[in-house]
Amino acid sequence: MDHIAEPLRPLAVPCDSLTIDPANARLHPEQNLQALVASLRVYGQRKPIVVNRRTQVVEAGNGTLAAARVLGWTHLAVVFVDDDPAVAAGFSITDNRTAELAKWDTAALDRLLREVETGDESLAAMLSALAEDEGLIPQDEPENDHAPEEVPEGYQVLVNCAGDREQVALLEELTQRGFECRALLT
Fold first, then answer.
1. Among positive and negative, which fits the CA dihedral 113, 114, 116, 118?
2. For 115-123, what is the mean pLDDT?
3. Which of 92, 98, 173, 186 is the most core-located residue (most Cβ within 10 A)?
4. Rounded CA separation 164/169 (Å)
5. Full-model pTM
6. Is 21 exposed, middle or buried (0-12, 13-18, 19+ CB in 10 A)?
7. Is the pLDDT of residue 141 over 80?
8. Which strands sit side by side in the sheet containing 75-81, from one edge to the other?
9. How far is CA 78 from CA 111, 164, 177, in A?
10. Average pLDDT of the segment spanning 79-90
């Protein structure tokens, strides 16, 4: 059970005793499943899944259980709850939806992505895709240390943006406010 974070090991139960929710509204296509497999392989299980004590059906963590089975894991850490079917369905949907509603702080994400070293090709590819989706410089691209082009005299502000999306949004906002703006690539 080395794959389970030590504080969670007392919560470990056999994977064979757990049932993936047949009514789960959240799908785990191959790309998602492989990302979960890679994450578990690299980092292990660091948070428990949530399972209904009476039915042994997973309320939150169906993808984690599926990925653990792909990895051949025999145990996972589980928090058991005593939910009725309506509460179980509500929690399952809410657990998935709240993650979707979150947004990235692109500047913080950019800094963190530059620090991450997974040692895993599929996780690295997933993180590079995330960086690209968020308009950030991919991790493997070296930063350009060139100084910005010469800016003509006048009252000026030079703003470093985390990515091209942020730069475009800022240019649009300032232009709408009547400022003369242009983008500089550094």
1. positive
2. 89
3. 92
4. 9
5. 0.72
6. buried
7. no
8. 12-14, 75-81, 49-52, 58-60
9. 33, 42, 54
10. 97
- What mean pLDDT, rounded, does the chain reach? 88
| For range 77-105, the mean pLDDT | 95
- Asked if 13 and 74 count as a contact pair (C-beta separation under 8 A), the reply is no
The radius of gyration of the chain's CA atoms, rounded to the nearest angstrom, is 22
In the block, tokens 């399972």 appear at 51
Sign of CA dihedral 129, 43, 40, 24: negative
- Cα–Cα distances (Å) from 95 to 25, 55, 58, 89, 104, in that order, read 11, 19, 12, 10, 18
Show me where the domains of the chain are located: 6-101
Q: Specify the fold of 6-101.
A: 3.90.1530
| 163 touches 137 (CB < 8 A) | yes
pLDDT for the residue 152: 62
For residue 39, give both structure tokens: 């994450």
The more confidently predicted of residues 174 and 147 is: 174
The phi, psi pair for 78, rounded to 5°, reads -135, 140
Contacts of 60 (CB under 8 A, 6+ apart): 49, 50, 91, 92, 95, 96
Confidence band (pLDDT; 50, 70, 90) for 136?
confident
Contact 45, 64 (CB under 8 A): yes
Q: The tokens of 98 are what?
A: 């709240």
Residues ≥6 apart with Cβ < 8 Å to 71: 3, 37, 40, 41
